[in-house]
Each structure stands twice: as structure tokens, then as C-alpha cells.
Write a structure and sequence with these properties.
The structure holds two protein chains of two kinds.
Chain A lengths: L1 E3 L2 E3 L3 E3 L22 E2 L16 E4 L2 E4 L8 H14 L4 E5 L4 H10 L7 E5 L10 H5 L1 H14 L4 E4 L7 H10 L4 E4 L3 E3 L2 E2 L4 E2 L6 E4 L4 H12 L6 E4 L5 H10 L3 E4 L2 H4 L3 H16 L3 H4 L2 H4 L2
Parallel strand pairs in A: 3-16, 4-7, 7-8, 8-9, 9-10, 10-15, 15-16
Antiparallel strand pairs in A: 1-2, 5-6, 6-14, 11-14, 12-13
Helix pairs in contact in A: 2-4, 4-5, 6-7
Chain B lengths: L1 E14 L2 E7 L10 E4 L11 E4 L2 E3 L2 E7 L3 H7 L6 E8 L9 E7 L4 H12 L3 E8 L8 H7 L1 E6 L6 E2 L12 E5 L2 H10 L3 E4 L15 E6 L2 E6 H4 L2 E3 L3 E2 L3
Parallel strand pairs in B: 8-9, 8-12, 9-10, 10-11, 12-13
Antiparallel strand pairs in B: 1-2, 1-7, 2-6, 3-4, 3-7, 5-6, 13-16, 14-15, 14-17
Helix pairs in contact in B: 2-3
The chains are: A alpha/beta, B alpha/beta.
The complex binds flavin-adenine dinucleotide (FAD), flavin mononucleotide and FE2/S2 (inorganic) cluster (FES).
Amino acid sequence: MIDIGGAKLKNPFMSASGCFGYGQEFAKIMELNSLGAIVVKGVSLEPWPGNKGVRVAETPAGMLNAIGLENPGIDYFLTHYLPWLNEKKIPVVVNIVGRSVDEYALVAQRLNETGVTALELNISCPNVKEGGIAFGTSKEKAFEVVSAVRKETSLPLWVKLSPNVTDIVEMALAVEEAGADALTLINTLTGMVIDIETGKPLLGNLTGGLSGPAIKPIAVRMIYQVAQKVKVPIVGVGGITSLDDALEFFMAGASAVQVGSALFRDPLLLSRLPGELESYLAKKQTNLGAIIGLARRNS
Amino acid sequence: MKDFLLQVTSQQELVPGVFSLTLKGFTQEYEPGQFVQVEVAENYEPFLRRPISICDVEDNNLQLVYRLKGRGTKLLAKKKPGDKVRVLGPIGYGFPLKSQRATLIGGGIGVPPLLGLAKKMHGQGMEVTALLGFKNKEEAILLSEFAKYADLQVATLDGSSGRRGLVTELITNKDDLVYACGPEGLFRTLETLGVKGYYSLEKRMACGVGVCLGCNITVIKDEKELRQRVCHDGPVFPIGSVKWGD
Ligand SMILES: Cc1cc2nc3c(=O)[nH]c(=O)nc-3n(C[C@H](O)[C@H](O)[C@H](O)COP(=O)(O)OP(=O)(O)OC[C@H]3O[C@@H](n4cnc5c(N)ncnc54)[C@H](O)[C@@H]3O)c2cc1C
Ligand SMILES: Cc1cc2nc3c(=O)[nH]c(=O)nc-3n(C[C@H](O)[C@H](O)[C@H](O)COP(=O)(O)O)c2cc1C
Ligand code: FES
């Protein structure tokens, strides 16, 4: 068992929020029980309609998304998706989004005693004009929202950081101090694609979040920097497409990893990774604990 | 739905820029109108799979007909017999069969998925009319195949084949259930004409399986607005149900 800030997972591989829905679609092609946990799409207090226009664009070694956190709201999640997930006995991590401190806190409150395994606060989504951005890029705002949610919940509280900042360590320390039990690094980086035929930005929202292999070195670097400074465990995410990629994250200091947009291309990737890690550890005659943070100890 | 590694058995350029690719080993049942997500390169560049409609399946041979557009379709066109291609599918909901007579209306590269549909309808003893529209004679595809299963009529914009004009001008019987695939303009014309039936939509996709919400649209069902995913809840929707502009 792996312990991520009080959440017990049978292996260190999870889906990344927004890339696995609420599990029902992937259940048709894989055994969801092969995952350490499912991290569901960001849930808000009320339903959010998301952005208009083109929402996804392919980019070199990755993609931009400007979904705008479309989701049916916490009530619908609790009545339509969670019972099904609970029945499957898979650890569920609920990604929470909000436009105000109160909204975050209210969603967290609604998740008490529902059987979910952990909360993951998305303070970093770069897409929503009104929300996200301010929390994830200001250490005072981040501290405030994490403290408020901390008061509402005794569940393991993970905070997902935005990479769109100058000093990631400063943000990590602020949310750790506010009571985070673990940190998830990283969310998407803000980018833009211009359609040269129309001469306009391609995405309806103009900008979108960059994910995929293109952001992997940035994620690895940020995890490496933060892991030296915080005591809480780190969940790594950003561009993982293979076990080799995941190993880089572990060696940088992540205790577990999430896989996101690589699933759009290789939907069965997450079902293979746990077995591949076991084979790797057996072959190298080592264990996961010995690998986590190895690159820091070696440098 | 399954992730298949299929072997190319043929790759043929039907008309300049439009290819027909046949892949062996597609062992799943499918409904005409469903599509597959095709991996065009083994490494992660380009990153996403490409959605392509199923044109036909015969003896587990999957036929895809696609037009060269950008990087992905150009790479797909380079595949040779013996090469392996990863294909996820079949995806989505196809065209529901509900009557004894039907009119299929295809425009341009929207024509291919209607071939499997014509074949299925013909197999069930339905009376099928196929109205196919193209820019010109040089772009007209699959005509002899459609002629096997349907009463075929063609329109071209320049009159170089069949009647000159829009494919919708070929409609004579507005009471038939219509099954359409093509550009948005065609669908809007069908709505204006007030015909009943189904159209198959195209929208940019990332996952293609319903998890990313990249392809969401608003659909009106029982007078209520619903958010639906073109990949997972479509790509086929009742004519008149889509709220355009999302
Ligand atoms: C459900 C569905 C069925 C389709 N069936 C067919 C078919 O049978 N035959 C055919 O020729 N084409 C079909 N298309 C369109 C086909 O997916 C695009 O032409 C193709 O993805 C273009 O890829 P590219 O790399 O060549 O072009 P690029 O323009 O370089 O592609 C860049 C990105 O935009 C996306 N994209 C570009 N154009 C479209 C489009 N029209 N629709 C959706 N995504 C697009 C690509 O998938 C890729 O992610 C279908 C699309 C959908 C959604
Ligand atoms: C389509 C899409 C939707 C996403 N939605 C969310 C979300 O709701 N909440 C969140 O915290 N992150 C969201 N993300 C970010 C991912 O969880 C992940 O942090 C990011 O994509 C980097 O990982 P990857 O390169 O493996 O995709 C989304 C990403 C994508 C591509
Ligand atoms: S393309 Fe991802 S939900 Fe349709």
C-alpha cells in the first residue's frame, strides 16, 4: 500500500483529472481496479457549461484544451456518478474547482461522509476567466482557499498546483502551511494556437492548457525542486506516456503519478503500468521507496 | 469497443487526395455511422488519434475512406500493405433503422459512411435512395458501390457529373426518413426543408471516447437542452436537434 497524505492506494498509478471522466467510459475497455485511484473531472458547486467554440487543439508533442471545466455540479456527481464508483470499490479522488473560496469550501463539505478517498483542489486551472487563475498564481490566495477547505474536511487534502508561476516552491510551501496533506504537480501550462487561415486564435477561449509530452521536463523539474523543500508527498503529473516517464517522476521525488492526455492516444496505458512497474522493480531488485527521490540523492 | 492492432491489406487512391484503406482483423460488430480513432504514427508525434468513419466492414476487413487534410491523414496515406495500424472502435451510436424506405444524402467526404448504411439497408430489404453531392466529377467517389445497394443520383456543383447544383436539390420525396453526412451547410439546409431523419456530425476531438469533453455540443431533446458529446453520444443525431454554434 502507498500512502499519499492519508489516502491508501494499492499502486502509484492514477488517472489525471479531466482525462478519465468519471470512469464509466474506460470501464468498457479496461479493469478499473487496476488503478491506484481514479481522479475524477473537476466538480463545482453548481453545473458549469464550459467554453464555447473549439475546445481542443493538437500541438507539437501535446495538445491544448480549453474545456472550461464543464461539469454537472456536485449534486449530480453525488447522485449519478459516485454510487457507481463506490460500488466498484475503487478509491475515488475528487478534483474540486470553484470561483470563490466559499464555493471550494462548500463542495468539500458536501463530500464529507460520502466514501471518497481524497480531495484534490484544482487551484490552477488556467481556462476559466473568473476562477482558478487567481488562487493558483498568488500564494496568499492559495493559502486562503486551502485553509478554508481544510476547516471543512478531515479527508486527505491534495492541492494541485499551477505551473504558471515564477516560483513553484513558494506556492508549494504556502499550501503546505495551509494544511495540504499532499501536492499534485503539475496542471497545464497556458498556451495559444493561431489558425493562420482565419488569422484568429483557434480555441474559442483564445488560450488553453498545454498537456502531453511537451510539458514533461517542466513537470519533472518542478517536482524535483519542490520535493526538496516540502515534507508532504507529491503526486506527479504532466506528459507521462510510459513506465520510463513515470520512473523519472518517481526519481524526481513523486510518490505516485497520474496519467492524463496520453490516454487519448493510448487508452490502455494505465492498465499496463502497474504490472510494468512490478517487473521493473523485480528485475532491478529494488522497491518503489528506494526509487522515490533518487535523482535528488544522487545529485 | 476495442483497441485493435490491424494489418493494412490495401491502400488505394480513389480520386486525387481521397484514399481507401483496408485493414484486416476488425472482429467487432458495428453500426453504420460509428467511427474509429486511428493512430497515425507510432511515436507521439502527431499526438492525437484521428477520427474516421467506418465506410464498410466485410469479412472482418475494415474499410476507411479519407481525404488528405493535414499531417495526420498524410501519414495515414503512407501506410502500405503489411503495415500495422492501431484502431480503437467502433465508437459512438450509428444510424437507427426505422422504416422501409430511406433517402441517404451525402456531401463530399461525408459520403463514405453512408455506403455501409446503404449495404445494411439493402440487406434488410429496404428501399434505398442515395443522393450524393460532389464539387465536380473528379471528386466523385464510390458511385459503383452505391449503385449496388441503392437507387443512385448524383449532383455536382459544376454539372460535370449528374445534375448541376446542390445535392439537396435532388430531394423529391420529403416524406422519406433522411440519413445525412456532410458539411454543416447541408445539415442546415435539411433543417430548413423540414425533412425528418438523422445527420452525422464532425467536431474536433481529443479522446474520442467521451472523457475529455472536447467535442461537447448542445442538443435539444423533448424541449430540453442537453449537453452531449459528439464522440460518445453521437456522432449521429436527429435532424433538427443540434443547437448550432457551440
Ligand atoms: C466522427 C468523425 C468522423 C470522421 N470521418 C471521416 C471520414 O470518414 N473521412 C475523412 O476523410 N474524414 C473524416 N473525419 C474528419 C477527419 O477526422 C479529419 O479530416 C482528420 O482528423 C484531419 O487530420 P489531419 O492531421 O490530416 O489534419 P490537421 O488539420 O493537421 O489536423 C489537426 C487536428 O485537427 C483535427 N481535425 C482537423 N479537421 C478535422 C475535422 N474535419 N473533424 C474533426 N477533427 C479535425 C485533427 O483530428 C487533429 O487533431 C471525421 C471526423 C469526425 C469527428
Ligand atoms: C481535456 C483535459 C481536461 C482537464 N481537466 C482538468 C480538471 O478538470 N481539473 C484539473 O485539475 N486538471 C484538469 N486537467 C489537467 C490534467 O489533469 C493534467 O494535470 C494535465 O493534463 C497534465 O498531465 P498530462 O500531460 O498527463 O495530460 C485536464 C487536462 C485535459 C487534457
Ligand atoms: S472527444 Fe473527448 S469527449 Fe468527445
